[in-house]
């Protein structure tokens, strides 16, 4: 049962009890009052009756108007007293009824007596003696008075008894009230103690247990009342807390994991920075190296070429063909070395430089290169077919190197053909855009195609076509750095097509 | 002037000395070419001091000055030439294989008249030397002889 219900019940019960008892007390008090009144009045009545008797005696002695009036006055005094008794709770009392009867009888008896005595007025002749009838009448009156006295005293006694009894009941009533109140007090104690304090202690214990990690800490408190509600609320809260704590643990773990990941990322970033710095330093060193290679290696070459030429120019007449030939070979060799140095430098630059992407007009670039080639050898009849509007996204410098190499190769390897045709364009290979440079020159044996893009690997002898074997390696590197691929198709004697994507 | 003013060539590489002289000759320049092997010799020649004092003091129509030389750097030589009132107006052409911009900037700051990078290709090299010679000897007017104190 819910505590509220208990308390309401208790309150109602105590209210009812108090009301009942108070009502009872009120009634008892009224009864006491009535009893007291009755007692008093009966006393008054008795007094009146005694007084009336004396008047009667007087009347008998001197049966005059005066005594009769007095007697009747006294009689009239008694009537209201009887009414008072009736008013004081004695209305249905048989004694009172009897008293009224006696009262009337008395009056009647006196009236008859008066009649009898009226016939003789102060008949001193009889010497104040009464005859039988008068005596009888007197006796009747006296009897009625006596009866009334008895009744009155009985009534008085009854009233006293009532009083005492009521007092007794009153005492009992108070006792009941006190006991009831004590019981209620006990009940409240019980409620508070058993139904509130104990469960609260249980709740507190449950909280401690929960903190200590126990599951189901409030299982003992499953009453159907408010405390039970609290217990269940605690259980719910504990569940939520558990969930929250689990989440929090997970979160903490995740935070830790993330922190670790962050730390790792920071470490990585640091090492990346260091590596990049290293790389930059290495690149700078390479540049310096390439620079010194470029100049310091070439200076002696210049001397070689220079003196070779000087020999031929100044002492040519002193040399036979073989001599001139030897000198020629020296010059050629040093020129070749110069070209090797240039190509190596190009390959090194191509691998090193940063890729800067932009939209490049390859048509324009190809045409410029074609013009340059034509300027170098104006006698050659070469037809250039360059597709218009070819735009690609890539690094301008690197793409220029690439086209110079490919078109230069096409130019070189079609030298032996009387009519050379060099094409440049782009095809759509399904979803892929593939650029191509085609020549109708010497071509090569496809069986050795795998060597094509390796540095220093050549598929023709130097006697057939001069070259360092670096050009295509550079081109392949450029294509790779743009994320594309390059491949070749060739037919020996018919020509070659180099295709690439970017 | 009856005698042709000499050209002072300051160059440490023997090969380059020979090739430059030859190229100048091929350009039909007949002025005497005095060769100094490094900066110290050059200054000796210009100021009439030291080991080659007897050949100087030289008042060339132009000085062809290399930068990368042992003992005394070409630019230091230039500085000293410009500091001396007797020699400060002499045209100096920096003829060097150095590619460094600093060298060029410093050269001009110190008052070089011209800065030429030696071409790596021999033909170009020979042509450059020829043109230099023709310009500085035939076209350019050297400053009048400074009064010898």
Q: In words, what does this structure look like?
A:
Chain A has nine helices and seven strands; from the N terminus they run ααααααβαββαββαββ. By secondary structure, chain A is of the alpha+beta class. Among the domains of chain A are: 3-196, Four Helix Bundle (Hemerythrin (Met), subunit A), CATH 1.20.120; 353-500, Heat Shock Protein 90. In chain A, the strands form two sheets. Chain A has a five-stranded mixed sheet. A two-stranded antiparallel ribbon of chain A has the order 1-3. In chain A, a hairpin with a 2-residue loop joins strand 4 and strand 5. Chain B has a single domain (10-119, 129-139), classed as Rossmann fold. In chain B, helix 1 (14-26) links the parallel strand 1 (7-10) and strand 2. Chain B is globular. A five-stranded parallel sheet of chain B has the order 2-1-3-4-5. In chain B, 40% of the residues lie in helices and 14% in strands. Chain B is built from five helices and five strands, in the order βαβαβαβαβα. In chain B, helix 1 crosses helix 5 and helix 3 (74-83) runs parallel beside helix 4. Chain A binds chain B through residues 291, 294-295, 298-303, 305-307, 309-310, 338, and chain B through 13, 15-16, 18-19, 22, 97, 99, 118, 120-123, 125-126.
**What percentage of residues of chain B falls in helices of 4 or more residues?**
40-55%
Number of helices of chain B: 5
The number of helical runs of chain A is 9
Distance between the termini of chain B: 21 Å
Distance between the termini of chain A: 86 Å
Instruction: Assign an overall shape of chain B.
Output: globular
Can you tell me the number of structural domains of chain B?
A: 1
What structural category characterises the helix and strand content of chain B? alpha/beta
H-E order of chain B: EHEHEHEHEH
Largest interface: A-B, 15 and 15 residues
Radius of gyration of chain A: 74 Å
Described by its quaternary structure, the protein is heterodimer
Q: How do the strands line up in the largest sheet of chain A?
A: 2-4-5-7-6
In the CATH hierarchy, the architecture of the domain at 3-196 in chain A is Up-down Bundle
Helical coverage of chain A, percent range:
over 70%
CATH-defined topology of chain B: Rossmann fold
User: What is the number of E strands of chain A?
Assistant: 7
In the CATH scheme, what's the topology name of the domain at 3-196 in chain A? Four Helix Bundle (Hemerythrin (Met), subunit A)
- What's the CATH class label of the domain at 3-196 in chain A? Mainly Alpha
Q: What's the Cα radius of gyration of chain B? A: 14 Å
